[in-house]
Amino acid sequence: MYEVMSGDTLAWKGASPRQSNTDPSHETEFTGDGGPVKILKVCFCTNNNLGKNFKLVKCDSTWKIEAIIRSILVSGRLGPNVELSKCYGLMLKHLKSEELHWLHPALTVGEVEQRYESHHVEAEWRYDLRIRYIPVNFLEKFKKDRSTFLYFYQQVRSDYMQSHASKVSDGMALQLGCLEIRRFYKDMNAKGLEKKSNFELL
After folding, report:
1. Around Cβ 145, how many Cβ atoms within 10 Å?
2. What span, in angstroms and rounded, lies between the C-alpha atoms of 196 and 202?
3. Domain of life, per the record (predicted)?
């Protein structure tokens, strides 16, 4: 059972999508049946700017969106032992407008091209890997999948910084900054903090 999220992590919808109970390890192979080869640039939500971290996925027009997501997760780029693969989704975003589309896992690359990409120049589109579905009792589930938990944290943080950070009071900004410093430097001693590189990052 999952809760579905809208494009903005901070906004929630009430509907729960139907999810298959298949084991992720038995999902479809990543190879398609042929067709034109395409390289998709899929961006990640990390501590850096969204566009700076990505994976190039070589596929053909018959690949399903779920296979692209799975190929990224098994590559280890997001971290080890990703178990909650059903939490992830691909968002197709048009960079020169507000247009965005959550891509259904069963859609093929060819269908995405026909439905969406054909309306604008290919270079104006961006694929973002995002947490789309939140499992019920997600805190308990995330304890078993630290990679997904960290990715979810980074996504929420990124969405907050882009959409809400400029609207909060100075006092709230200071408190949030202190919490982030405490999280980021939780294992660092006073000597480590004196290093020039750490101080500049702080």
Report:
1. 21
2. 10
3. Eukaryota
**Contact status, residue 42 vs residue 54, Cβ threshold 8 Å:** yes
Say how many Å lie between the first and final Cα of the chain, rounded: 40
- The pLDDT of residue 41: 93
CA distance to 27, 39, 74, per residue, from 68 (Å) = 12, 11, 10
> Any residues with CB less than 8 A from the CB of 41 and at least 6 apart, and which?
54, 55, 56, 126, 127
Separation between Cα atoms, residue 119 and residue 109, nearest integer Å: 15
Residue range 50-87, pLDDT digits in tens = 445 899 999 999 999 999 999 999 998 888 989 999 99
d(CA 20, CA 28): 13
Q: With beta carbons less than 8 A apart as the criterion, state whether 131 and 9 touch.
A: yes
